[in-house]
Structure formats: C-alpha cells, structure tokens
Amino acid sequence: MTEDEDRADAWFHALADRTRRDILRRVLAGEHSVSALAARYDMSFAAVQKHVAVLERAGLITKRRQGREALASGDVAAVRSVGAMLSDLESLWRGRISRIDELITTDTEPTEKPEPKER
C-alpha cells in the first residue's frame, strides 16, 4: 500500500464521523480552542479531544499551543486534496458508466432490418 493510500484511508476514516465533520467545518472557518469546541457538543471534553486527534492524525487540522490552550485550525490544502481525490474518482466512474451506456445502446440497436415473416 502506498503512502497516498494510507493518507486517503486516514482522511475518510476521519470524515466518516459527523462530529468530526462538524469540528472540521468550524475550524476551517477559523481557529478554535479545543475547550471552546468541546462546549458545543453533548459529550465529554476527552471525547472531543479524541475527535480532534483523529482529524489531526489525518492531516485535516493542525493544532498549536497558546498558553494552556490547544488551538485547532483546518488545513485547507488537505481538504482540497480530499476534494480532488473525489473528483478524480467521479471522473473515472462517469467514464466507465458512459462506456457501459454506449455498449448497451450498441447491443440493442439492430444492425440490419429483420426480414418479414412468411405466412
């Protein structure tokens, strides 16, 4: 398995959870402290920290320390890479579906007119 495939696995694992997607949306809009993020969810601070850690390991967010606070920011370049990967997959499958449609159309169109039946 390549490094790119490992990174894609990490991205999609991180994005498979709705809380993590919501955290990512918030930190893409601007830097947030992890404690401020935790106040928005009906879960423990430790649970939010774990979600943030998954996003950070996937490379979708970065964290920095300011005093006692951990501040999280979204990594726009990483999110664009996820979008580009999905666009590539969409193009690949649209091409395949288009070829299948062409084959179906070709197979169903008669090449010659059928001869009339004898009575």
From TrEMBL:
Domain HTH arsR-type intervals: 1-94
SMART domains linked to this entry: HTH_ARSR
Molecular function GO labels: DNA binding; DNA-binding transcription factor activity
Keyword terms, alphabetized: DNA-binding
SUPFAM superfamilies given in the database record: Winged helix' DNA-binding domain
Gene3D superfamilies xrefs: Winged helix-like DNA-binding domain superfamily/Winged helix DNA-binding domain
NCBIfam families listed in its UniProt record: HTH_metalloreg
PANTHER family xrefs: SLL0088 PROTEIN (PTHR38600:SF2), TRANSCRIPTIONAL REGULATORY PROTEIN (PTHR38600)
Name of the featured protein: DNA-binding transcriptional ArsR family regulator
The species this protein was found in: Naumannella cuiyingiana
